[in-house]
Write a structure and sequence with these properties.
The complex is a heterodimer. Chain A is built from nine helices and eight strands. By secondary structure, chain A is an alpha/beta fold. Chain A has a single domain, classed as NAD(P)-binding Rossmann-like Domain (Rossmann fold, 3-Layer(aba) Sandwich). An eight-stranded mixed β-sheet of chain A has the order 3-2-1-4-5-6-7-8, sandwiched between helices. In chain A, helix 4 packs parallel to helix 9. Chain A is globular, with a radius of gyration of 18 Å. The termini of chain A are far apart. Chain B is α+β, with helices and mostly antiparallel strands. Chain B folds into six domains: 122 residues, Alpha-Beta Plaits, CATH 3.30.70; 167 residues, Sulfite Reductase Hemoprotein, domain 1, CATH 3.30.413.10; 84 residues, Sulfite Reductase Hemoprotein, domain 2 (Alpha-Beta Complex), CATH 3.90.480.20; 153 residues, Sulfite Reductase Hemoprotein, domain 1, CATH 3.30.413; 103 residues, Four Helix Bundle (Hemerythrin (Met), subunit A) (Up-down Bundle); 81 residues, TusA-like domain (Translation Initiation Factor IF3). A five-stranded antiparallel β-sheet of chain B has the order 1-2-5-4-13. Chain B has a five-stranded antiparallel β-sheet with strand order 3-14-15-12-11. Chains A and B meet through helix 2 and helix 3 of A and helix 23 of B.
Chain lengths: 271, 771
């Protein structure tokens, strides 16, 4: 496979980079990334990946675009209200870069469908807004051996890290399982600034590109924590947990299951 | 109870307080890993094999550790480490798996209890060691502990002692039996009393490693306070004559070797005279009390408990102070969990003399225990952790090995565990430990042991196999020390079974009063050679892949990525082996084999271990021919070797001289390897004629006239990616911005710009693809 002149021009500003070059661009064009959640995190992530020429992008989300989404979910426009998010997002991505193959899955991830979907992808981006989905993605990626980028945002804060299953600490190494119901912020406490989603989603896209290109140091075994109010980035180092119920020495989780959602209506603050 | 240990000098406090800034600079990316290492290692902090995790080596002068210090180390192990405190073969305590960002607080909290890892690593005066029974041993001339402590203080006070040509190890033995291993220290002091005067005989230039040496005697007797002058003189000699360029030959023993013992002694006398002229302040020697627990602090009833009797026979040693005992706490692999260490610290106060001692055998000792308190101590230990009263079939002293040590070759700790498991249940034939080392660098100090194992690698059936060399006959003793001799090499996986047979043989053959040393002498090396021969066979990979894996490792054994360092000697061994085999093959006219071994030898320095011949040739071509470490005719040799496999016999015969030349060049490159596995010789200059335009194979021409920046650069770059490394591309560029930018950008990204020539209104830029 070699690059066409139009492609060389389109991607020239990254082909210039020693770490990318034509070879790297070809890698990106041959890569497949699944984005779970076409919301606040999925918006910037999917747009940057499409722009960068990631050949195949999968989008999975079961929701419909709502007026309250538009404050932060920049892949959707006012005219999209009422249409399924994956369809709205796919249109935008194709408009940015027609060469990108966009596959859409108009459903939510469940223990029943996730393995079948992620098996076709090289990397997964977790852009979901709830703990059960995050644990499900973590577990599925571990069983399927798929690297993924975890992220979460709330109010003025965001966090992310990358997981190479079996090689670096996973989400459960840190948190074990979903927090008890009373530890989860109530709806009234949980707002979010749109720009925070943009920062963290863009970092996920950057991390994905690094992984696909095989350059730099991945955000593994450390979590990047963003505090927009203080405008600080902080790094928290950790390591694999021997007692991790998933990837530890004596795993207790040996198959996928859907965790219970521990809060009344988390959806009001979906990212 | 008035136990003392070293006092922290103000300079150490200052350096410790300055350290957080260095860590911050490193974390912020302002200091390179190399620059940070230069600060971190002399602070006793080493990076472990898993990047991002660190080991902190805390010095304990003479192995003395006070209870509150032990508790603090235990706390830090729990809070910042892996919950385990490791005792080293030079009486330090180590914390493992510490994150770099935690190191400043660890140092600070150690300082609070008067401990520091300063000088725990790097080219510094390392921990000053003393006999494990110093102060209580019935055989000693006098207690050397105060001297180890005071000399430590003296050395720590001088910052110059952290920038020597290489590390500098000092030891004190209480008598000629040399339990502190002065025979193989850079500077060793043996205690003697002469006409009522306490003093020392002094040995210098000993050391263990890939090239071990015994120290030479430099003083027959000096009065005790002279140790400071003598140390200063030897250190100055080292500072002046130590090789700061080649760290593999930097230790004091190489200075002795280069100048010969007589010249060394002469220069030492000169230095000593100079030091005496200048005068040196002799610090006051602080003698701590050898206290004991308050009598009757524990009950004296001793029921008939067979476990207790066994323990007492094995781990309790009568002190020279009547009625008091020293008690060994045996530690498997030198490891103790934080909780148990805290418990021992308590016991040291309640039943002991108020201090713990870490020993060269990687154990801990409680001392000053009244005989009447032994049973209570036994019960307290048993309740704390059964392992603290273990009666091991075999004791082992083990280096850290390749699991954490960046220099290690074999997983020595894994072997030690396998040996322990294999021998479990057998009666202990001897109390002497078996010394296991993962590489030739001898942290496990096998060269002075009656029997020791040294890790290495051999190539069998085209694959690497972890092996151990069996070494026997080593001995430390004043004036009568001996280095162990190599007997045989056996695959790592055969060692436990071999030792089992050996252990049973020693148990059944040993005569009354015979030491392990004597027994092996009596048997002679032939017995071990015959025994080893039984276990030397390496089955094929298909038959038994486990032989190609190290203990506790599911992957095939590999040396790729091993640092050179000192243990890199192991990597060097493997390269040397290939070169030797290539020479033999060449001599026997096995040309094809010679080519394979020649081209394979150096690939490991590039982190490559291809198995198939075709892959070896390809890797060699990529990493050595195109980058011109060897001349271009090497490619002809490789092509001919491949042809030979296709049935063309003649061409390789015709290239015999080229094969010889290639082998010589490979050997030259090998000898020039520096500590970063880089070659110190220059790449091959291509003959000028080849550089001329006529003979250059210009792969392609790319006309970029009319293409603006940076698209012209992007397209040139893409075109270069299409051609082979070493090939040449001509690029036509416009005058002005393009010709100013594009060649410079190509060079910046590692390509070689051969020429930039004007051709009318444009330029022809000739580029050779390097990357």
């Amino acid at each position: 496979m070699s690059l066409r002149m139009e492609e060389i021009e389109r991607y020239s500003r990254q082909i210039i980079l020693k770490e990318v070059g034509g070879k790297g661009q070809e890698k990106l064009l041959a890569s497949r990334v699944l984005i779970v959640g076409a919301g606040g995190l999925g918006s910037p992530a999917s747009m940057y990946l499409a722009a960068a020429g990631v050949g195949t992008i999968g989008l999975i989300d079961g929701d419909i675009v709502d007026l309250t989404n538009l404050q932060r979910q920049i892949v959707h426009s006012t005219g999209d209200i009422g249409t399924p998010k994956v369809r709205s997002a796919a249109e935008k991505l194709r408009a940015i870069n027609p060469a990108v193959q966009v596959h859409t899955y108009e459903e939510r991830v469940t223990a029943g469908n996730i393995l079948d979907i992620i098996k076709d992808y090289d990397f997964v981006i977790d852009g979901t807004d709830n703990f059960p989905a995050k644990f499900l993605i973590n577990d599925a990626c571990y069983f399927a051996g798929k690297p993924f980028s975890h992220a979460g945002i709330l109010r003025f804060d965001g966090q992310l890290f990358t997981v190479l299953p079996g090689r670096s600490a996973c989400y459960r190494c840190l948190f074990g399982g979903p927090p008890p119901a009373n530890a989860v912020p109530s709806c009234a406490q949980a707002g979010v600034l749109g720009g925070v989603a943009g920062v963290i989603g863009s970092l996920q896209a950057t991390e994905t590109l690094k992984y696909l290109l095989g350059v730099g140091e991945l955000l593994t075994d450390r979590m990047l924590v963003f505090d927009a109010l203080g405008m600080h980035f902080r790094e928290v180092g950790f390591r694999r947990n021997r007692r991790c119920p998933l990837c530890g020495e004596k795993p207790t989780i040996t198959e996928l299951r859907d965790e219970e959602q521990p809060v009344c209506d988390w959806r009001g603050t979906q990212v | 109870m008035n136990k003392t240990t070293y006092r922290i000098h103000e300079t150490v406090v200052e350096d410790t307080h300055a350290f957080p800034r260095e860590v911050a600079k490193f974390l912020a990316g302002e200091a390179s890993p190399v620059a940070f290492r230069a600060v971190r290692v002399p602070m006793g902090i080493y990076e472990q094999r898993k990047s991002g995790t660190y080991m902190v080596r805390i010095r304990l002068a003479g192995g003395v550790c006070l209870p509150h210090q032990a508790k603090r180390v235990a706390e830090l192990a729990e809070e910042f480490g892996n919950g385990i405190v490791h005792i080293t073969t030079r009486q330090d305590m180590q914390l493992h798996d510490v994150l770099v960002q935690s190191t400043p607080v660890v140092l600070e909290r150690l300082l609070e209890v008067g401990l520091s890892p300063r000088g725990g690593g790097g080219n510094t005066t390392r921990n000053v060691t003393a006999c494990l029974l110093a102060g209580v041993c019935p055989d000693e001339a006098f207690d050397v502990t105060p001297y180890a402590i005071t000399l430590t203080e003296h050395l720590l006070a001088n910052r110059a002692n952290f920038n020597l040509p290489r590390k500098f190890k000092t030891a004190f033995s209480g008598c000629g039996k040399d339990c502190a291993l002065c025979s193989v220290a850079d500077l060793g002091f043996f205690a003697h009393t002469r006409e009522g005067v306490q003093g020392f005989s002094v040995y210098a230039g000993g050391g263990l490693g890939a090239h071990s040496a015994l120290g030479i005697e430099i003083e027959k007797f000096i009065p005790a306070p002279a140790i400071f002058e003598v140390t200063e003189a030897v250190k100055r000699l080292f500072d002046q004559h130590g090789d700061r360029v080649n760290r593999h030959q930097a230790r004091l023993r190489f200075v002795v070797e280069r100048m010969g013992p007589d010249e060394f002694r002469r220069l030492y006398r000169q230095e000593l005279a100079q030091v005496r002229r200048e005068g040196i302040s002799v610090p006051e020697i602080r003698v701590g009390e050898n206290g004991a627990a308050p009598a009757g602090s524990m009950s004296a009833d001793e029921p008939d408990d067979p476990g207790y009797r066994l323990w007492q026979a094995r781990h309790v040693f009568p002190q020279k102070q009547a009625g008091l005992c020293a008690v060994r706490i045996p530690l498997s692999l030198g490891d103790i969990r934080a909780r148990e260490l805290s418990a021992l610290a308590e016991l040291a106060v309640v039943v002991g003399d108020g201090a713990l001692r870490a020993t060269q055998d990687q154990d801990l000792y409680l001392r000053g225990v009244p005989g009447a308190s032994l049973y209570e101590l036994y019960r307290a230990l048993r309740e704390s952790d059964e392992r603290l009263i273990a009666i091991p079939s075999i004791r082992s002293v083990v280096c850290a090995g390749a699991s954490t040590c960046k220099l290690g070759l074999c997983l020595s700790r894994g072997l030690a565990q396998a040996v322990e498991a294999e021998l479990r249940g057998l009666d202990a034939a001897f109390d002497e430990p078996i010394r296991i080392n993962g590489c030739p660098n001898s942290c496990g100090r096998h060269p002075i042991a009656p029997i020791g194992l040294q890790g290495g690698a051999v190539r069998t059936n085209g694959r690497l196999v972890p092996v151990y060399s069996i070494m026997v006959g080593g001995r430390a003793a004043e004036g009568n020390a001996a280095l162990a001799r190599f007997v045989a090499k056996v695959p790592a996986k055969a060692v436990p079974a071999l030792l089992r047979e050996f252990w049973i043989a020693t148990a059944t053959n040993r005569q009354d009063g015979e030491t392990l040393d004597n027994l092996i002498d009596r048997w002679g090396a032939d017995y071990l050679r015959t025994l080893a021969a039984k276990y030397a066979h390496v089955p094929s990979y298909e038959e038994a892949p486990e032989f190609y894996r190290d203990f506790g490792c599911d992957e095939d054994f590999s040396l790729a990525g091993r640092g050179p360092g000192e243990c890199g000697a192991g990597v060097m061994d493997v390269i040397a082996l290939d070169i030797d085999e290539a020479k033999t093959a060449l001599a026997q006219n096995a040309l094809y084999d010679a080519v394979v071994m020649t081209t394979r030898a150096l690939l490991i320095t590039r982190g490559l271990e291809p198995k198939k011949d075709r892959e070896i040739f390809a890797a060699f071509s990529e990493h050595f021919i195109t980058s011109r470490w060897v001349g271009p005719r090497a490619q002809l040799v490789l092509d001919a070797a491949l042809d030979l496999r296709l049935g063309d016999r003649n061409t390789l015969e015709d290239l015999r001289d080229d094969i010889h030349a290639l082998l010589s060049r490979v050997e030259e490159l090998f000898r020039s390897l520096d500590s970063n596995l880089q070659f110190r010789v220059k790449p091959v200059e291509l003959p000028a004629v080849q550089e001329s335009a006529h003979s250059l194979r210009v792969a392609q021409e790319l006309d970029l006239r009319g293409v603006v920046c940076p698209m012209n650069f992007v397209r040139a770059k893409i075109q270069l990616e299409q051609i082979e490394t070493g090939q040449v591309l001509d690029v036509l560029l416009d005058d002005g911005e393009p010709v100013r930018n594009v060649p410079a950008s190509l060079a910046q990204q590692g390509q070689e710009v051969l020429s930039v020539a004007r051709e009318g209104g444009h330029f022809r830029v000739r580029v050779r693809k390097v990357e």
